[in-house]
Amino acid sequence: MIWIVLVGLALGMLVGLAFPVVLPGAFAHYLSIALLAALDSVFGGVRGSLENRFDATMFITGLVSNAILAAGLTYVGDKLGVPLYYAALFALGFRIFQNLGAIRHLLQDRWRARRAARERPAPRD
Amino acid sequence: MADPPSLDPSPNRPRTPAAVSWRPRAPVAQGSAPVAGGWVWVIAVLAGLLGFWVVQQWRLQTLLQQTAAAQEARMLAQLVQSSLARDAVLAARLSTLRQDAANTPSVPLAGLRQRLRAAQGQAGLGSVTGVGVTVVLHDAAGPAFPGEPAELQLVHDQYVLHIVGLLSAAGAQAVSIAGQRYVSTTAIYCAGPTISVNGVTSGSPFVVQAVGRPTALLAALASDPDVQGWSQLVSIQFHATAVVRVAALATVPDLPWLTPTGHRG
Fold first, then answer.
1. Is the whole model's pTM more than 0.80, yes or no?
2. How buried is B265 (Cβ within 10 angstroms: 0-12 exposed, 13-18 middle, 19+ buried)?
3. Which DSSP letter does residue B264 get?
4. Residues whose CB falls within 8 Å of the CB of residue B260, separated by 6 or more in sequence, listed in order
5. Residue A49 has pLDDT above 80, yes or no
6. Which pLDDT belongs to residue A123?
7. Would you call A102 and B24 a contact, using CB atoms and an 8 Å cutoff?
8. Would you call B57 and A44 a contact, using CB atoms and an 8 Å cutoff?
9. Which pLDDT belongs to residue A124?
10. Of A109, B52, B102, B186, which alpha carbon lies 20 to 30 A from B235's?
């Protein structure tokens, strides 16, 4: 599965590079915070996958809804004169780093478990 | 204990409060949970969209930064253009002024300088040297008459004012009192036992010097009844002096109500 996702990601990046038009600058503010929300969901998905709790349906709906909500809240905040952009930035950034730390520890635990299993003597029949 | 509020209800994050920290409570699984075949392609498409989005955002931010730099460059170019235009205007004006100066007939400056020196002398802006008289006013040195008030033994500002007026009326070109130049803005007044001239106080004896024709100045002093009367109370002596130097004003008075052309504003 991971290869399919990586290939999809690479294809998307290539299309983005080759795309003749760049997104309008007026949306840059909202797109950036939506992208951050999407990245937060991605890292949450990676962590859930490592913890064997990944749910594809919830991942997809969470990614899309989080991105839309983050951009929408930022837009509403701009209209109301409340800088919700910074609140979302702080919350999402905090969660991304928290997920990254958890992913690192999970991978480390997994690597240690494999090494211990390798060094354990094979049981005699 | 309830779950902390969260933006994302996704199960991809732990649901128990203890699992909010980085280390999961459950044993580490050896491998990911299986994903249904159809969802893999949806996630792949989403990954593609995410990649597209990331690259687009990257390009957009780069473009915005370039736009800002281009705007700054345009602004600087406009500044340079406006400076060049202003330089051209000033250069044209300079050329015109030089032509005007070349076409203007020469003015005899020697006469103007002489008149300027004379005006400066009268205004107190330059020192004046020449023959003149010296008047020395001294408080009474002898014993007072019986019942004579003490103030009659002192030289007062009105004595000095009167003598300065006499000298000026008799044709003095420049007058100084205790070294202070007498001009149209000079104030002479008593300050206790001292007299203040141009804001500088001095005590007895008071030396008044004037540049001018000595005979006329001395005659004016000698024939004045007030000077004769005051001479009975205090000491007033005057004599001709071969070289009298009356210095310029120590500080030029600040007269902001005068315009540069000399007219009152």
1. no
2. exposed
3. B
4. none
5. yes
6. 66
7. yes
8. no
9. 60
10. B186
Q: Give which of A2, A7, A51 to mutate to test B binding, by max B Cβ within 10 Å.
A: A51
Please tell me which of the candidates A12, A98, A101 has its beta carbon nearest to residue B50: A12
What does the pLDDT read at residue B37? Answer: 66
Tens-place pLDDT, residues B132-155: 999 999 988 877 777 778 788 889
A8/B44 Cβ within 8 A: yes
Report the complex ipTM.
Answer: 0.73
B204 near B102, Cβ under 8 Å?
Answer: no
Q: Which two tokens stand for residue A51?
A: 């913890």
* Closest CA of chain B from A124, distance in Å: 25
Average pLDDT over residues A107-121: 88
**Could you tell me the pLDDT band of residue B94, with boundaries at 50, 70 and 90?**
very high
Q: What is the mean pLDDT of chain A?
A: 87
The label of the residue with tokens 């910074």 reads A86
Distance from CA of B47 to the nearest CA of A (A): 5
Which of the residues B20, B46, B60, B65 would you substitute to probe the A interface, choosing the one with the greatest number of A C-beta atoms within 10 Å? Answer: B46
The three state secondary structure string of B118-144 is HHHHHHCCCCEEEEEEEEEEECCCCCC
CA distance B198 to B249: 9
What pLDDT is attached to residue B207? 95
Binary contact (B43, A56; C-beta < 8 A): yes
pLDDT at B214: 94
Please name the fold of domain B124-246: Alpha-Beta Plaits (3.30.70)
CA distance B48 to B35: 18
Instruction: Choose among B29, B47, B64: nearest Cβ to A25.
Output: B64
Domain coordinates of chain B in residue numbers? Answer: 40-92, 124-246
Binned at pLDDT 50, 70 and 90, residue A93 comes out as very high
A17 vs B contacts (CB less than 8 Å) = 55, 59
Give how far A4 is from chain B: nearest CA, Å: 6
* Contact in structure between A19 and B56 (CB atoms under 8 Å): yes
